[in-house]
Write a structure and sequence with these properties.
- It is extended and about 45 Å long.
- The relative contact order is 0.12.
- The chain has a domain of 37 residues.
- Helix content is 42%, strand content 0%.
- The longest helix is centred in the middle third of the chain and has 16 residues.
- It is mostly helical and 71 residues long.
């Protein structure tokens, strides 16, 4: 008998299929920022959102856990 588990919160899908050129760009940005793929994608989407919707700017938060600052 198969039991189903009801989730109260929606599941966030991960592992989007991106073009090879996009993966390469992400890797180049990772090497520059020394950040994770999640950090790079999150920051890029936030910057793009702020560019196309300046009235509702989101703060560009940086996670210390996922990003190391260059000195």
């Amino acid at each position: 008998m198969i039991s189903t588990v009801k989730r109260s919160d929606p599941k966030t899908s991960k592992g989007y299929r991106l073009k090879n050129s996009t993966h390469s760009m992400i890797e180049r940005i990772q090497s520059i920022t020394n950040g994770s793929k999640d950090f790079v994608l999150s920051r890029a989407v936030r910057l793009y959102y702020n560019e196309i919707n300046p009235a509702n700017r989101l703060p560009a938060q940086e996670s210390k856990k996922n990003h190391k600052k260059h000195e």
